Amino acid sequence: FFHLQKKRRAATARRQHLKSAMLQLAVTEIEKEAAAKEVEKQNYLAEHCPPLSLPGSMQELQDLCKKLHAKIESVDEERYDTEVKLQKTTKELEDLSQKLFDLRGKFKRPPLRRVRMSADAMLRALLGSKHKVCMDLRANLKQVKKEDTEKEKDLRDVGDWRKNIEEKSGMEGRKKMFEAGE
C-alpha cells in the first residue's frame, strides 16, 4: 500500500515538474516572439515612415501640412471604401445563409412509393433505346410437378380437427394414444 502511494507521489511530482518546465519554455517562447514582433515593427516603420524633418519657414511648414492632409484624406477614402465593401459582402453572406436556412427548413423529402416494374422496363429506363435484349425470367424457370408426400396424405385423411380432438378426449382416447405409442 505504501509502495503504491510512493509511486503515485513520484508520478504526480514528475507531472508537476514537466508542467512547470513546459510553462517556462512557453514563457521564453512568448518573450522571443514579442521581441521579434517589436524588431519587425521597427524595421517596417523605418522603411515606410521616414523620420520627420520639420522645415524652418512658415510657408514650407504649411505645404508639409497640406501634403499630410491630402495623404490622410486618400487613406481615409480607401478605408471607407473597404468598410463599405466589407459591409456589403457580410450583408450578402447573411442573406444567402438565411435563404439556405429557409430552403432547408421548408424542403421535405417526398415519400417514396414502390413502383412495380418488370426487368425489361427497368433496363429500358436505364439504358434507353439501346436496350434490345428481352429478359423473360419466367421462361428460364424449370417446371416442377407437385408430388403428394405421405405427410400431406395423412393430413388430408385426418379431416376435421374437431372430430380428431373428440376421439382423443376421455379415457378411450388416452388408451388409443397409449396403444399407438407402443
From TrEMBL:
Gene Ontology process terms (BP): cardiac muscle contraction; skeletal muscle contraction
Keyword set, alphabetical order: Acetylation, Actin-binding, Coiled coil, Muscle protein
Cited Pfam families: Troponin
InterPro entries, alphabetized: Troponin, Troponin_I, Troponin_sf
GO molecular function: actin binding
GO cellular component, one term: troponin complex
Keyword Acetylation: yes
Entry keyword Acetylation: yes
Chain coiled-coil ranges: 27-106
Taxonomic superkingdom: Eukaryota
Subunit structure of this chain's protein: Binds to actin and tropomyosin.
Family: Belongs to the troponin I family.
Record's function text: Troponin I is the inhibitory subunit of troponin, the thin filament regulatory complex which confers calcium-sensitivity to striated muscle actomyosin ATPase activity.
This protein's name: Troponin I, fast skeletal muscle
Upper lineage: Eukaryota, Metazoa, Chordata, Craniata, Vertebrata
Gene: Tnni2
